[in-house]
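Supplementary Text 2. Reproducibility record for the structural model of the 439-residue chain.

All settings were left at their defaults, and a single model was retained for analysis rather than an ensemble. We include the record here because the model underlies the residue-level annotations in Supplementary Table 4.
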Amino acid sequence: MVNLNLYIDPGTGSMLFTVLIGVLSAAVYGARSLVIKLRTGAGRKADKNKIPLVIYSDNKRYWNTFEPICDELEKRGQDVVFMTASPDDPALKKEYKHIKTEFIGEGNKSFTRLNMLNARLVFCTTPGLDVLQWKRSRSVEYYTHIMHAPRDAASYRMFELDYFDSILFSGQVQIDQIRELEELRGLPAKELTLVGIPYMDEMMKRAQALPPAPKTDKTTVLLAPSWGKSSLLVKYGSSFIENLLKTGYHVIIRPHPQSFTADKEVIDKLMAEYPNSDDLEWNRDNDNFDVLNRSDIMISDFSGVMLDFAFIFNKPVIYADINFDKGQYDYYFLKEEPWSLTMLPKIGMALTMENVANVKDLIEECLTNPKFKETREQARDEIWQHRGEGAVRVADYLCNKLKELEEKEAAEIKAAEEKKGKKGAKKASGSKKTEAKKA
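Retained model, structure tokens:
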């Protein structure tokens, strides 16, 4: 008797699951097409089961982007199915008349649902369409992506924006980067539209409505790094936290949510070594507004929250000069330096291995030098256009695109019916001629 111990590594398992999803999607699509042909014949008819607009969110943290857009669509009476991969997404608790919210499972389960979706338009912040597990459904007519932060379009991992039909942006620099990548890769030109940043509009409203943060005896320093091997906490580690605490400032550490998974060993070690105290707090609030409001300065690396802080609260930043590895990202293909990297020296100061011991001097310089305020405003104008209009412009785009797709389908159905009618008339005419000859 032969005893076989079979093991499939996670990467191979993921690949096999992707193949399985593709096979199942093709089978479902084929069966659906066969049923339609049997019912309707060769002529094309409107699919009554097609969802007009699907909004997909892969994580609850993107609700701040989607909520103002959903609110605007609700006002217009636009029917939407909001699909989320987070069982505790705030969207599931919000009451709408025209927006149906639905939890579609986590991980591969959500991709299975998406890959078999029957919808006219899918709108999302999730990249990676047709790159890994998430495949274009043959029953979806159009895919639209929206940038959810004021950053480079090339900041995504390689190829993750290549296969969308359209992308919505906040700044011309993002459009320029996508056009450069399209030309380089020989891709057809996507529809690229400037709409603004809905969640930052809402943050700006909240910030303007608040009284100034109460003055405290200590300067509050917010350490808000991104995640991964190039992130500040991974690169600098405990020695940097030690230097911050020596300044006498109050220190708040707010790691990126993904770091608790991707960098779990590092974060667990640091939290054990530096627990909460009067001088230090770890922050994991779902809404970062309060912690941004009560901080005087932020230290970060390449996290998008740094720009939220600078542009909404008009406060200085210190960014870690970490020799960012472009190898995994579309940054790698750009001819010029990314906008984010050229902009950072204009709005803050660089933290390096050489000056890390003098972090207190850096903080004082950023807090007192007036030049940073002017350059912050310049950078904000470049990357955040149509301020205050984001949700309205996104809703305008989605509603107009739906109308365009519906009109296109109606025209195609009409053309198919006319073609079918002409064939029928030609056939009838032929039959009459045959009968006449026989007579």
